[in-house]
Amino acid sequence: MLTSFSSYLFVGAHPDDIEIWAGGLIFKIHERNKTAKVYCVVLTDGSAGQGSVQERYEESMEAAKMLRVDSYEFLNFKDASLDFNVELSKVIANLIRKYKPDVLVTHPASDKHPDHAAVGLATSKALFLAMVSPEFLDYEPHLCRNVLRFVSDPFSSPSSRVYVDISEVYEMKKELIAKFKTQLDVLEPYLQLNELYGRMIGVRAAELFEPEVLIF
Amino acid sequence: MLTSFSSYLFVGAHPDDIEIWAGGLIFKIHERNKTAKVYCVVLTDGSAGQGSVQERYEESMEAAKMLRVDSYEFLNFKDASLDFNVELSKVIANLIRKYKPDVLVTHPASDKHPDHAAVGLATSKALFLAMVSPEFLDYEPHLCRNVLRFVSDPFSSPSSRVYVDISEVYEMKKELIAKFKTQLDVLEPYLQLNELYGRMIGVRAAELFEPEVLIF
Amino acid sequence: MLTSFSSYLFVGAHPDDIEIWAGGLIFKIHERNKTAKVYCVVLTDGSAGQGSVQERYEESMEAAKMLRVDSYEFLNFKDASLDFNVELSKVIANLIRKYKPDVLVTHPASDKHPDHAAVGLATSKALFLAMVSPEFLDYEPHLCRNVLRFVSDPFSSPSSRVYVDISEVYEMKKELIAKFKTQLDVLEPYLQLNELYGRMIGVRAAELFEPEVLIF
Amino acid sequence: MLTSFSSYLFVGAHPDDIEIWAGGLIFKIHERNKTAKVYCVVLTDGSAGQGSVQERYEESMEAAKMLRVDSYEFLNFKDASLDFNVELSKVIANLIRKYKPDVLVTHPASDKHPDHAAVGLATSKALFLAMVSPEFLDYEPHLCRNVLRFVSDPFSSPSSRVYVDISEVYEMKKELIAKFKTQLDVLEPYLQLNELYGRMIGVRAAELFEPEVLIF
Amino acid sequence: MLTSFSSYLFVGAHPDDIEIWAGGLIFKIHERNKTAKVYCVVLTDGSAGQGSVQERYEESMEAAKMLRVDSYEFLNFKDASLDFNVELSKVIANLIRKYKPDVLVTHPASDKHPDHAAVGLATSKALFLAMVSPEFLDYEPHLCRNVLRFVSDPFSSPSSRVYVDISEVYEMKKELIAKFKTQLDVLEPYLQLNELYGRMIGVRAAELFEPEVLIF
Amino acid sequence: MLTSFSSYLFVGAHPDDIEIWAGGLIFKIHERNKTAKVYCVVLTDGSAGQGSVQERYEESMEAAKMLRVDSYEFLNFKDASLDFNVELSKVIANLIRKYKPDVLVTHPASDKHPDHAAVGLATSKALFLAMVSPEFLDYEPHLCRNVLRFVSDPFSSPSSRVYVDISEVYEMKKELIAKFKTQLDVLEPYLQLNELYGRMIGVRAAELFEPEVLIF
């Protein structure tokens, strides 16, 4: 997978979502495929949690540098307020058309966190909208053929699983997560999950994703 | 996927199951990875359907030649009689230990066909048994880390999907299926499904699988 | 439905199961279609509940007379001991082949009562076995194309529903149920459910079924 | 079924939805019940797909003539933009009240196509709204007691199935579908599905529906 | 449970929802824990059903007296018009923050009644919003740690169940329900369900709830 | 809960299952209710994992002492070989009749571990068998009215949850788990889960259970 795809779009609801659930994957993409493009988009301003909007923005920018992404965009929707509707689907459809990724990685629709669920549901609609020709969208249509979902709700485990062995980049991931100073107590248990997932497949640490569509 | 794995075990309940649901995948494996090992096992004798047991065995042998597999084993259980229990799980666990595949490809537990479902359910147990150390099994323990399921019940569609684009080998697959002379009317609609799956991803023909676990 | 089908097989796990869940339907079948055939089979001897095996047998015979069925068979398996396996599936497959019904009506696989669930699961396998040609079955193959399931677990409501308006035969059904003297306290709440189902569709009383396959 | 109901309302999200999923059923209704009323409503203008809005409208009008429906209404909502909310539910509730059908046939809520899903979800709410007395609706309340869902997402197969044997009208259905000149490549695989469904029940061609509520 | 929690918030979509599904529980709370606080909130005005808005309000006030609740609030949203969105979630989040209950009892998200479902879905979001710090909410954040759902859709039975034995207060509950003079025919079948639930656990009458989270 | 129930039966498939999933609960039961009875039964001999059967037996006996249980029974079925069938159900039904607990705590039927799933499924049947009067069981019938399931498959999270706050006994639980010397590397990640569950409800450590039936 890591060698055959050439561009990835990661969409997170909040600052730190992409890093905590897929930071290791991004590091591995770079290691395996020097020319792969990685785009990140964060939908909300993070105002509902700990830390100020400005602090969280700066933490994300620090992380972005470390991740060496090709683009890191903030859309600044109000945190804790995303609704699943056509408007949100259009926003995500436009992102898919703008970045034209091979692979989209984002939240699952079944996530208990309401913002995550809204993004997850709207993405399903967006994938469809991005492909057809509605005049209310910008950019040219794009069929994004591979979709992975974060396991951003650890209590909503997928029956289909893609594990990414992040053992070789795990120290870097810990360093990456340490950038999010305002969120450390929230994020640490998820690093423990990386170790638990690792044990499941017999390695030091792993990230877990739900494959929605993969094409070989 | 097709380049990173080095051995595959396909387990089908009946003669022709492996070919109709995964024949294209096997051709592609050979094209992409000259050294990959492919093992096939058919559990029952096919006595419940059209054609005699002998005819069906010969058809499978013809197919096996065309597929250039490293092994093609018949276990000759009675067709239409597989029960999901520890005995069947042991049989499959022993296969996993014997062939030690990177990837196991077999029926899903949700399949409406009772033999398929029995195999699907027993496989989940077998994957576990193959890994631990029960003295009642032969061969050394093996952890098979990648599992794909056929979509052998077209009315039981998976929400997680792996499509394999078989456009380039589709003519060969049709030739392969033509070897199963006693089953042609049963098998043809499934070739039409390959074309339908192809349309879904914008290619001529595709095979569809449900990913259970994939490791990258 | 009641005019277009010409034969029905009802399979109940225990004495009184057919009557309490489908007694009204049987009365209505007779009213709408004088030539329709109705066959009933009870799998167990009823020994686990109230009343002796002999008493329960006699109650069923009384009910059978009132229902004017074409056949009422007792298989006398041990109550509370049905296991879902190929053996039970063969028993039911043979019943399907023997009676060759247009419509099969029996328990759902999702039923919480273990005997009901075993019958429900085995029936799915039996429908398949009845159709193919395994030499271990008696009678000629039969494709039973219509299948309804009792809602014999009132806590396991189907999302697909067939209501049969039994208002016109409800007094007869109450009389029928009164034949089961050893079971009256168990059966009465289910008559209340008939009234509740009736309210849902705006009539006095109704029986509820889950349609599995219906062909028009 | 086809003789006992006297009026049908078909609601499709786009031009051609009703015809491709239920065209055969409409032909059969006319054959079995000369006095049955058939009403069709198309919610969106079809602007997101191939063909202009005007072309698609004309194709539908051609089809409507062939189907001999009692009414064929276009509501002209923007294609690819339906949201599931009270507003859409009111629209459908008003249609139920206006046409007062015995049977409503429309998309399922589980459909992957976002417009289909919005219609499917809103219909559940609409059936309820049509029945109670909210002052914000037009027309008198109506309890629509029979509901069938299209299988408009072939990857979202229902466990409860109604097959309509359309063998006798299949040539007419193919002629009907040929009216949709701008959509032929999209529609053809679905005709193949009609043949696949037919094989499942041993006939030439069939349409498949998910029964939600049927009353006998 | 009834002794260890000190405050309860009941949220019903319509007048009489709280009483019919949880009236017995409220009586028992008072019997077991003299100091427990009970707050009730009714979201809509009840204008879609039988009886005028004024009549229904008065019936609820009569019931409130009998229930001896600490607060009984009417929010007067339009009946049959609740949409699941961030706005409704904010309303419920504010209620959780205002009353700061140990236990929240409300409709399940799976309820077929559209208003019930909207409340059920919005509550999941509200529980989250009540806990974080969005500036658009009033009152201080509150983590409500125990959540029970009504079984307000008797056809949507929970697999996890909390039964409350209301035998000792059942006469009072019947008296309570009799206050709702405009709704008697609607409510009576639900009292029969209380008796059916009672039989399931071997007592005279019981109320059934779905436990979402309980902490001991 | 911890004060109102007077006897508990814990059934684990393997040595250490009860301790790792419910050790904290047992300590808390003793603290809250000095007279509560606690019975433990382990079904298999533990021969499939690390450590000899003898070593694992001795570890369990050490743990039993620390837990101060009223009975700790080993049934010595072969590890990794439990099948779900009437025989296993009878075994568990006899345990329910023998110990007559208020509360039964055991594995869930949805568990991915095959032995756990067999126990989980057989328990549902056993609860029924324990209640009726089949002559093939020993002891008098018993209706066990409260049932909790372990979350012994951390990837199969229940939507209904009971958390037990074990903060006050967490040090003791760690000491308890340390008795299982042959299993330490397997067990440690589950202690981390206790801490993760604790964070979810704002305490140091918690055990998680799925409530099946609870009566108040």
TrEMBL record, chains A, B, C, D, E, F:
The lineage of its organism: Bacteria, Thermotogati, Thermotogota, Thermotogae, Thermotogales. It comes from the Bacteria. Transmembrane segments: none annotated. PANTHER family: N-ACETYLGLUCOSAMINYL-PHOSPHATIDYLINOSITOL DE-N-ACETYLASE, N-ACETYLGLUCOSAMINYL-PHOSPHATIDYLINOSITOL DE-N-ACETYLASE-RELATED. It comes from Fervidobacterium changbaicum. GO terms for molecular function: hydrolase activity, acting on carbon-nitrogen (but not peptide) bonds, in linear amides. InterPro entries: GlcNAc_PI_deacetylase-related (IPR003737), LmbE-like_dom_sf (IPR024078). This is N-acetylglucosaminyl deacetylase, LmbE family.
